[in-house]
């Protein structure tokens, strides 16, 4: 199997592991953004699909969190109910998905260290693929959740 | 204009070096040293100059802001611009070539200097973008804390 196929396979396997987390964040998004702020997530998904750097995606989440109060809404059923949607999403992308990237790139899997330029580009690409997968799952759950009227659904 | 290879390197640097350093830079000033976040007027000014200017114009702007006669209440601005000037100066005079290894080999010193300026405006834009988004979050956090205390 060539490297590209291996990367896609490993990203898809990791996506199975973080599916439950994406559902949780999708529910939080539905609670905080509701139906009328759908464009916020469309904007995020479009940006993530075209971004060349992870930092641009994190900046978008942070900018919207600072700008709009609904990005700063907590979620009563969450482990930390006062943590805002924006902060929770940023932390997940920045910490959890980076850990997933490190697992995929570790010596037992794809063995892509960060010692050469080529490897650093590959690691960035894998990280972006993980973020896109996660956001796709999260936004599908958000759409599903807000499709019900008055959907302040709990997790 | 950086080459495609240089741009790829800059994207990696952005994620692994510039982003964490920009976040740490503004957090140190606002959180650890308890200074004010940048106000909206400074954010707008800095963004405008960063997107429209050459690196030497940006350097000039930062120096001008640092040298301004800020009132006592706005001394944090003077400190912010002094720190930013120092950081970019080290980046330009040392890190771009030695640490980031972005400058191509075989250039005359004049060509190398021009290339460094062209690379620096791209790096500075990126750094300032990260810094300003983090600044926005810190400003909201400070405002929320102030409101809670009232």
Task: Describe the fold and architecture.
The complex is a heterodimer of chains A (155) and B (150). By secondary structure, chain A is mostly helical. Chain A has one domain. Helices cover 70% and strands 0% of the residues of chain A. Chain A contains 5 helices and no strands. Chain A has helices at residues 3-33, 38-50, 54-67, 85-105, 117-146. In chain A, helix 1 runs antiparallel to helix 4 (85-105), helix 1 (3-33) runs parallel beside helix 5 and helix 3 (54-67) packs antiparallel against helix 4 (85-105). Chain A is elongated, with a radius of gyration of 16 Å. Chain A starts with a helix and ends in a 9-residue tail after the last helix. In chain A, 41% of the residues are buried. Chain B is mainly α and 150 residues long. Chain B has one domain. Helices cover 81% and strands 0% of the residues of chain B. The radius of gyration of chain B is 17 Å and the shape is elongated. The termini of chain B are far apart. The model of chain B has no long low-confidence stretch (mean pLDDT 95). Classes of the chains: A mainly alpha (155), B mainly alpha (150). The A-B interface holds A 52-55, 58-59, 62-63, 65-67, 72, 114, 117, 120-121, 124, 127 and B 8-9, 11-12, 14-16, 18-19, 126, 129-130, 133-134, 136-137, 139-140.
Global mean pLDDT of chain B: 95
Query: How helical, in percent, are the residues of chain A?
Result: over 70%
| Largest beta-sheet characterization of chain A | none
Identify low-pLDDT runs of chain A: none
Tell me what portion of residues of chain B adopts beta-strand conformation: under 5%
How would you describe the shape of chain B?
elongated
Total helices of chain B: the number is: 5
Low-confidence stretches of chain B: none
How many domains comprise the coordinates of chain A?
1
